[in-house]
Amino acid sequence: xxxxxxxxxxxxxxxxxxxxxxxxxxxxxxxxxxxxxxxxxxxxxxxxxxxxxxxxxxxxxxxxxxxxxxxxxxxxxxxxxxxxxxxxxxxxxxxxxxxxxxxxxxxxxxxxxxxxxxxxxxxxxxxxxxxxxxxxxxxxxxxxxxxxxxxxxxxxxxxxxxxxxxxxxxxxxxxxxxxxxxxxxxxx
Length: 188
Prior knowledge:
By secondary structure, the protein is of the alpha+beta class. The chain has 5 helices and 11 strands, in the order αβββαβαβαββββββα. The chain has one domain (2-187). Helices cover 29% and strands 36% of the residues. Strand 10 and strand 11 form a beta hairpin. Helix 2 (58-69) packs antiparallel against helix 5.
């Protein structure tokens, strides 16, 4: 009987070990899947004017690469950080996008700007609880985070892109330390 219990215990430990190893390789994505912008504007330190990087410039490509990489995790990492069942979401919530308020306390934002009007989408489907789902700009906060931290992306309302308020906000989780460090290197 002892031999049978020992074999069962070894098999169970083997299954658990195989599961842990598999979870360390299974990817978990938190990306909100925005379209690549026509240009990126970096905002930080309460500046009155951001720094613009045009599509296909070296800086644009590096920012976009680090931005997309920040959403990649594994099932094991997500589980240990309590985010295994978390995912990107969208919130209907009016929010003023006053730059001096957004950029306080060393905050950093990247703004995705588009030459053509876009429609708010979530999970590949048009998202709208009202007719106010058109935009040409999204303000995305960038945090100095080595762990999965909640970030917000504010959809700047309006077709002209000059309005300073948002009706929709994406929330998700990301490791943004590499993006944060790169932006600080660029703008220092």
